[in-house]
Design a protein that fits this description.
about 300 residues, mainly alpha, 3 domains, two-stranded antiparallel ribbon, 13 helices, binds zinc ion
């Protein structure tokens, strides 16, 4: 194989488009594939570009497929550092270790490195425990989002309910991925499974009772659940932030809306005014606090 450079043809036919291109760095990539006797890999840059274009969701997989052919390494961090740009990435990895790095030297993204939404405290191990092994990082995130969204309105009475909801989330998320990828067979399969799981979990809209849909509360248990779900319920009630409480509040509200009306602005609810006063109050407190602390210093 050492003499392969001597055999370098001037023109080479691309394996994919069958065109005969003049061999150069403009048309073909150099490679480390020991089973291909030419210095350049016989797949033209145009065909590679065409193959890599398309759905962003699955692009990394396609990039890896090409890198495997060229026997160049897949280094996840470098891929991101090069803005997921194929040309830039190739220039970078071709220069590593004098171009001797191969696909075996690849550094794949581990699940540990996946950036989870910042408001999530759950670790990746917890995600695997919760959703099972073998899903894609994107899928874990999609499962969690769907689960968090649905559980707000779905009473998790016991672990059976939780399992049923999880099952639905898995299938429904997979269906969405299939839609994105135009995978019609997948869409049909996942949608069928998701529908069945929704039926079992009783989250099918047609299975909702009147109370489910009207937010009706007809037992003490439901009442306490509703209170627990509400944020700041204890703080909000005594302050009556939604409406004016006395003549002063009411006068301020009327005056603000009078001014707004004169300026052709839409009228505001009292809670907007409450919010504004609170923000100003906070700013004032901070300012005064700064003055006071500089006095004592
Ligand atoms: Zn080609």
């Amino acid at each position: 194989m050492t003499d392969r450079i001597l055999k370098e043809p001037e023109y080479m036919t691309c394996l994919d488009c069958d065109s005969s291109w003049k061999v150069s760095t403009n048309t073909y990539y150099e490679h480390n594939n020991p089973f291909v006797g030419t210095k350049y890999y016989p797949l033209c840059k145009k065909c590679i570009k065409k193959y890599l274009n398309g759905d962003e969701h699955t692009k990394e997989k396609r990039v890896q497929t090409i890198l495997q052919q060229l026997n160049r390494p897949w280094i996840h961090d470098q891929w991101e550092k090069n803005n997921c740009d194929w040309g830039r990435y190739m220039r970078h990895v071709s220069s590593l270790n004098n171009g001797h790095m191969t696909f075996i030297d690849s550094e794949f993204e581990t699940l540990k490195q996946v950036d989870m939404p910042s408001d999530k405290s759950s670790t990746n191990d917890e995600l695997v425990d919760k959703w099972g092994l073998g899903h894609q990082p994107d899928e874990y995130i999609a499962f969690e989002k769907k689960f968090d969204f649905l559980k707000r309105d779905y009473a998790l009475r016991n672990s059976m309910h939780e399992e049923a909801l999880k099952k639905y989330c898995r299938y429904a998320a997979k269906e969405e991925f299939a839609v994105v990828n135009n995978d019609f067979k997948g869409i049909e399969m996942w949608s069928k499974l998701a529908n069945k799981a929704a039926e079992d979990a009783k989250i099918n809209p047609k299975q909702f009772t009147k109370a489910d849909l009207t937010d009706g509360i007809d037992s003490f248990g439901e009442m306490s659940r509703a209170v627990e779900k509400a944020v700041d319920v204890v703080e909000i009630l005594p302050r009556f932030i939604q409406r004016a409480n006395d003549k002063v509040d009411f006068t301020i509200w009327c005056y603000v809306n009078y001014e707004r009306d004169l300026h052709g602005l839409p009228l505001v609810d009292y809670k907007e005014i409450y919010k504004f006063i609170e923000e100003r109050e906070k700013a004032y407190d901070e300012e005064v606090g700064l003055i006071e602390s500089s006095d004592t210093a």
